[in-house]
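for the recovery benchmark. tokens below, seq after
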């Protein structure tokens, strides 16, 4: 059993980002799945005393490395980059490292919460999604993705010369958007983002952390 454990569920985009960071840094990890498959069981485990000892805000992912516990995805990514990957996920150029921090903050403060709250959660977790509200939110999301596209003009990654924490935070989120009804049109004609996507979606870290799809278990029986 690997010493490094990630607590979370594979479908979470943040959990996938944490796992991608482990793969990029060359550290084997174990995904310790919370709950028993249902949303209710996952929420119950997140709120348990045991998990609150790991994450005071009852969220995921959490990394455990021996006695060391790290919560929040960007912190986990930086930890495995420094501890195992010789800083592989942070640009060595200080100016590019600051650029990375800008896009990490923008992802965590604007792109990810707006996408999750206005598009992903309503489509995935509501039995009868408010399609009018989802349609109303699409111009905001499109504007976010146009901003990402502009940031990639003349670049292959968001900062530095290789994949950084900024890329790893955004890749699982955009993959989920593209997999949902009405998601792909949000990226239409965003050629810089498309070029970036072709590269990052082919990386082993992305491929090896793909979450199970509905029906996978039944197909395997």
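predicted aa per position
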């Amino acid at each position: 059993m690997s010493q490094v454990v990630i607590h979370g569920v594979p479908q979470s985009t943040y959990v996938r980002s944490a796992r991608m960071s482990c793969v990029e840094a060359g550290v084997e990890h174990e995904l310790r799945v919370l709950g028993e498959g249902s949303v209710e069981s996952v929420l119950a485990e997140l709120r348990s005393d045991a998990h609150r000892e790991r994450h005071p805000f009852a969220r995921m992912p959490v990394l455990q490395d021996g006695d060391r516990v790290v919560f929040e995805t960007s912190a986990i990514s930086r930890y495995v980059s420094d501890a195992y990957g010789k800083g592989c996920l942070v640009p060595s150029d200080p100016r590019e490292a600051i650029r990375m921090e800008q896009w990490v903050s923008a992802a965590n403060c604007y792109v990810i919460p707006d996408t999750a709250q206005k598009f992903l959660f309503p489509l995935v977790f509501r039995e009868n999604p408010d399609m009018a509200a989802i349609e109303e939110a699409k111009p905001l999301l499109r504007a976010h993705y146009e901003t990402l596209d502009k940031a990639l003009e003349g670049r292959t990654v968001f900062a530095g010369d290789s994949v950084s924490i900024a890329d790893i935070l955004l890749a699982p989120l955009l993959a989920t958007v593209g997999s949902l009804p009405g998601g792909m049109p949000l990226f239409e004609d965003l050629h810089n983002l498309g070029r970036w996507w072709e590269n990052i979606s082919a990386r082993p870290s992305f491929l090896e952390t793909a979450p199970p799809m509905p029906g996978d278990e039944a197909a395997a029986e």
